Amino acid sequence: MDATLSSSTAVEATPKKKSLARFAPTAARVFMGLVFFVFGLNGFLEFIPMPKDLDPADPAVAFGVAMKATGFLFALVKGTETVVGLLLLANRFVPLALALIAPVIVNIFLTHAFLAPSGLGMAVMLLAAELFLAWSYRAAYRPMLAMKVNPGS
Known about the structure:
153 residues; mainly alpha; 7 helices; membrane; globular; transmembrane
């Protein structure tokens, strides 16, 4: 019996190797936070210059112009991006931030898939980060995905 105790103690005393994968959710969260905070703010402050050779007949350009022409949609999307970026960077209300930004990411992905394929790489990276983080925070979404819930419970 003493031999069993001493061998189990020796196993517990050896430090476990830590995987770098434990940093993946943080890296994905910071990546998304930076992208959405910077590009959200850019929608208001325009500190990243627009290319001079934009073709107004290009469907992606026409889509952006139409969003601005509504008077509210562009500001709503960019405001959402900015707030979500801040929440992700501050590591606050992350599941809520991911839920708020999900439709924006789907729109970004579909816009680049069908209208502007040159930006598809970044769109795929954002979609992958969103899906990975949603999976990482799946416990927070479990109550929301219940088939039947009584109000107030």
